[in-house]
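Re: weekly structure request thread

Next one in the queue (134 aa):
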Amino acid sequence: MSMSVYPAFNPELTGVQFEAEGKLLFDEFEMLDAIAETIESPWFSSFGDDRPIPEDFDGDEDDLEEALGPWDEWYSAQDGLAMVVGLIDAIAEEPDFADQLNEPQEVIAELEAMKVCLEAAIEQGAKFRLELAP
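Done, posted below.
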């Protein structure tokens, strides 16, 4: 089962939704983090739940959510937009970055879909975070 990354908003956005599957963003998140680091941008994954997994944890994903408790951290949509635009520009303009991705144009398309949502979030005064879904 492949996982997906998608943006969540607080409060929820009106009039716009994330128009991508987010599977490539999940598959390429480590490379997106590496590109972000190279361009001196916050990491893609830094806008998601980065709480450490307890050392003694050995259950499944549902048990992990229970072990960690609720997660209520939200991030600036402006910061997220700057990160997404930086990644789009870097991948589109630097062949070395594009070559490190399996499907660079499709990754850009998913980032562009996220950009649309983040622009709306700024207009609507919403915060955001990245979440995972199966």
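The chain has six helices and two strands. The radius of gyration is 15 Å.
Next request, please.
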